What we know:
Chain A is an all-alpha fold. Helix content of chain A is 79%, strand content 0%.
Amino acid sequence: MKSRHLSLQLIAVVVGAFVAVPIIYAVIGGFKDTSQLSTNPFGLPAPWNAGNYADVLGSAGFWRQLGNSIFIALLTTALLVGVSALAAFVLARFTFRGREAIFTLFAVGLMFPFTVAILPLFVMLRTLGLLDSPWGVIFVQAAFGIPVTIIILRGFFRSIPNEIEEAATLDGCTSFAFFWRILLPMARPALATVSVLAVVASWNNFLLPLVVFTDPEWWTIPLGVQQFQGEHGADTSRIMAYLVLAMVPALAFYSLAERHLISGLTAGAMKG
Amino acid sequence: MRRHLVLCAATALFLAGCGSSTTPPQQSPQAGQSQKAEPVTVDWWHIATNDPGKSTLDKAAKAYMAEHPEVTIKITILENDAFKSKMSTVSSAGQAPDIFTTWGGGVLAQQVEAGLVKEVDLGEMKDSLTTAAVAPYVIDEKVYAVPTDIGMIGFWYNKDLFAKAGITEPPGTWSAYLEAVKKLKAAGIVPIALAGKEKWPGHFYWSYLAMRIAGLPALQQAAETKDFTNPDFVAAGQQLKALADLQPFQKGFENAAYPGPTGQSATVGNGKAAMELMGQWAPGSQKTEGKGLGEALGFFPFPAVEGGKGALTEAFGGGGGYAVGAEAPDAAVDFLKFLIAEERHAPAINDDLWLPIHKGEEATVSDPNKKAVAEALATATGFQLYLDQAYPPAVGQEVNDSVAQLIEGKKTPEEVVQSITEVAKSE
Amino acid sequence: MRRWVTITLFLLPALVLFVLLVLLPTLMAGYLSFFKWNGLGGLPTNYIGLDNYTRLFESDIFYGDLRTMGVIIVLSLLVQLPFSLAIAMLLHQRIRGRAFYRLVFFAPYVLSEAVTAVLFTMIFAPDESGLANAILGVVGLESEWFADESTVLLTLFVVMSWKYFGFHTLLYLAGRQGIPKELTEAAQIDGSTPWQVFRYVTLPLMGPTIRISAFLSVIGTIQLFDLVWILTGGGPSHSSETLAVTMMQFGFKRAQIGYASAISVVMFLLSLVFALWYQRYVMRRDLEGATVQ
Lengths: 272, 427, 293
């Protein structure tokens, strides 16, 4: 048993190293200057140069974009998970005519590339007066996130035993009360999962904010990255520093959500 | 039936959106200004994300606003690719900023056809600008943009590496050029850096060879008749194939980009390849992407091909300028003329921003590399805009794509001209 | 009646958002595929029927795209998903620094495509300056990676797996949480080996999650775009091109919006056929499961 434990640990270390190498490389790359990147791509920086990170952290633009990105990601996620959980609940726990048709309709949304829809979408957002407004991005991101979120949530909602629902109904729970007080707490891992996916998708979205925002006041991190690349075209190491820092908030959100991934369904079932 | 209804609804929305393509005028009149002039706002999108461009343009806008208090110039700076994506989205909805970056040619022609831009009246300035500078924006003999810059493509080479291979002077003919490539290879030097992934740098070779062999009029004629099957164009492809067969490019060039630490520019800038065929921006790029060559950097025009109809003095290149949206106020054109007036344009050249566009302006250039380009252009006997810019986008991209495949040995010279002709005819 | 009110109220918000902002623009874009349109100024007028489609089916690039798609789907299902599952099982164990590993394994998914491209372009540099060649050169396995037609797809797949396995691991982890401890513990007490527990208890119970993850993986591969676009642009000589990359080449670079729309409609139909088949023959078990329970 002990040796098995040790070998698992070993595997984790090896695979972890394999996965981490490119990221470590990016973090260290941020401490080099660009000519070091081409002359000494894989060694340690000599000398270490913290200027890239300091410059990014010292720029007002970075912090404003960070704020915008966080605001948009959180609202997108709240809206998306809210509407999708409601829909997935009905699609998972009710039997009614047209259920599969509606589910398929949602699933269809996965199958069409977003880039093509952008032209008509732009016209529609203009008509709705949502250009240069964060809501233009939030609503569209939430809408395009619905398919995958519903597919995942429905799967999880299904796996909750019917006995629990029956018991709740006997106790006099309405559908909404069952959904709100029992199902959602039990599905915390699934909710955490789809929230993480929504935050990451929003975090890295480029085309939509580009098209919606003309005013740099509202620009998000990916737009900032592109602009930054324009400004420092050749300065790859500085861009790396920017990108590494841009990743941190999304990872931080993941580690917050991750706790809910671990404490899970079983604990919830006991309480239920 | 239901599907039909949805489509109708979508169409209605689409149409409704198209009506409102004008930019709303600025509401708040500035305090204490002359009552006669209506306040106007000029929306200006450009791609000068870094200095000196960014601050030069900003200063010019401020100076103009100080002279014309009723005008507000609103600048939006976008990175090159971001600009193109955003531009294509808004223009699909029938909208264009009052002033925006353009490179002229086929893209501008499509915008003219769609009624997105309007003719620019250059006034007296028309006579002071060089023909080459204005050429990219002339469509049906009307000018549709104000130029800020014009340059040309040529070979940027490493004098030290050429000397090491025993090449004493830059080749003036194509056969001497192929000889030089062989000598470089024999000396263990990578002769040419090429960004194969991006395709556009490769099309310079085919275009120049076509110019040198078939002559400028043949290229212009092909654009009109949409027929590129001229045997001289096939010959151009054969010469390019002869070059590619020498395997002159750096290892893995098929996936090389132009910028970046492993790109074409850095490869030359770090002395890992002896030359590149590139535009006027090459020296600056070599310096920022790599170490730069300093004194060792030299420039020579694309060699003449023996027996060809074109001359060594004919230039291939392009520049940049600003087009004016169809709904733009008059102040937009007025500002652009202010921007490129010689007293503002000439100093910017030596700030490392633009190249000469006014006649005789090349005399003011101090940087030797820029001077080489400016003088070659000033004495040029003919000018051809980049083919991937001059032709409609689909044709231009087919030139790039086919030539890339020719270089990689996937298409024959005959197939190249057939593909281009096919796409040109379908446009 | 009350039931229908609940159903309607619960479905409505998602349906409104989805129909207005996803379905309608999408249908509109699909409609463009019957036109020859350069994407400029207002509505397209040059109706050409199915010409864009016939042109697509006659193009060699299209069949190359299908081949790329097939190769990556097969590799993903056979390599990427089992790998993700193994990592999820590993992370479910009580190993030291588990939280740290979870963070490390998920980090690539968060990293933007742009920086992924910068990193792997350097790692898989075609000459001796690349890390991959430096390491594999020891055993004589140097390659030009992205620059060579014979290795480009495999290299691309490695990068894709690195970038996206965290997504599937995340799904599997959440799915694994749903399996009651009692079941696996009971099997262990019965004397089953860890492999037997996994094979006969955990794996079958993970079924629904695995089927969803495989579904999303295939659909995602049909739509594969970002990484290919920045890493190879579809080259060399179209050998790593995907449908979405072809679509962008024509829509964005060549200003042939109608043709690009036709490609996206074909992508949609491929996904739809797969989805319907999958729902009918693979996911059906999950549907039955829900009603039987």
